């Protein structure tokens, strides 16, 4: 009904006018979540006294500090966002935005009791205890932004032979290579390199999965990796086409030689 949404909060336009003065839940603790919170503060600060600021209800499973900062981070904007996220996880206010932080919390249900779909969203939370989720509390918000559970649309190859990784929903060969490298979440994503054409192949002949889809649920994809994949993939397909052409040419030559001997 539009009260529970995905994607980055837009700090301008209709969305900004809609959110000013409201209680907004942000669910997740990745780069997308803190980017949305940063944009929500921009909305709150631009609203003036009439807008009433806004309140962010930040919900995430992380119990400790949400973000690990990279020493001497070559991306200063990322470091600034991560530092801001860690500070906001203490709760309190930032500008005209108030933050309520619910760390170590799992969302178990969304409920909207207004049959017209205009009322608040009730979010049920639970905390983990002895390996089980125990209901903890409920929070009421006007809108909720979900920044978790992203996965690619793999419908393009559902009828084809693509071996997918059960953990990432990406093609298996590349997923295995990423898990063993910086692209698997064990290091800074900027340190990663393309893993070559062989990791892009699947049991389906001449099918290569490139770009963000190839990383599945991993958020470490970089545009420069996509460029490398296209280069490697096109080279691999060209080599395959050339090999096929050479094979056909050899077969024809052998057939012509056989006919010549018969004649």
Verbal overview:
The protein is α/β, with parallel strands linked by helices and 263 residues long. 33% of the residues lie in helices and 20% in strands. The longest helix is centred in the C-terminal third of the chain and has 40 residues, at 223-262. The model has no long low-confidence stretch (mean pLDDT 86).
Helix-strand blueprint:
Blueprint: E1 4-6, H1 13-19, E2 23-27, H2 31-46, H3 48-51, E3 54-59, H4 76-88, E4 92-94, E5 97-102, E6 106-111, E7 121-129, E8 132-141, E9 143-146, H5 172-179, H6 223-262
Parallel strand pairs: 1-9, 2-3, 2-9, 3-5
Antiparallel strand pairs: 4-5, 6-7, 7-8
Helix pairs in contact: 2-4
Summary, kept brief:
Helices cover 33% and strands 20% of the residues.
- Secondary-structure class: alpha/beta
Spatial strand order of the main sheet:
1-9-2-3-5-4
How far apart are the first and last residues' alpha carbons, in Å? 78 Å
DSSP helical segment count: 6
Biggest β-sheet strands, sense, barrel: 6 strands, mixed
Proportion of residues in β-strands: 15-25%
Mean pLDDT: 86
């Amino acid at each position: 009904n539009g009260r529970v949404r995905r994607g980055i909060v837009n700090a301008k336009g209709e969305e900004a006018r809609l959110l000013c003065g409201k209680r907004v839940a942000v669910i997740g603790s990745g780069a997308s979540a803190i980017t949305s919170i940063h944009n929500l503060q921009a909305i709150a600060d631009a609203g003036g006294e009439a807008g009433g600021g806004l309140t962010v209800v930040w919900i995430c499973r992380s119990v400790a500090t949400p973000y690990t900062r990279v020493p001497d981070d070559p991306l200063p904007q990322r470091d600034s966002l991560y530092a801001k996220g860690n500070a906001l996880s203490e709760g309190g206010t930032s500008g005209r935005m108030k933050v309520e932080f619910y760390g170590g919390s799992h969302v178990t249900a969304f409920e909207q009791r207004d049959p017209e779909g205009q009322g608040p969203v009730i979010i049920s939370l639970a905390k983990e205890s002895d390996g089980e989720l125990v209901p903890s509390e409920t929070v009421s918000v006007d809108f909720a932004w979900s920044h978790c559970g992203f996965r690619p649309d793999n419908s393009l190859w559902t009828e084809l032979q693509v071996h997918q990784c059960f953990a990432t929903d990406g093609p298996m060969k590349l997923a295995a290579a990423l898990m063993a490298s910086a692209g698997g979440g064990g290091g800074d994503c900027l340190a990663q390199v393309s893993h070559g054409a062989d990791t892009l192949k699947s049991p389906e002949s001449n099918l290569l999965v490139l770009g963000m889809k190839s990383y599945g649920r991993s958020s470490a994809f970089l545009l420069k990796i996509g460029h490398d994949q296209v280069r490697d993939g096109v080279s691999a397909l060209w080599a395959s086409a050339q090999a096929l052409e050479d094979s056909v040419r050899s077969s024809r030559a052998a057939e012509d030689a056989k006919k010549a001997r018969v004649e």
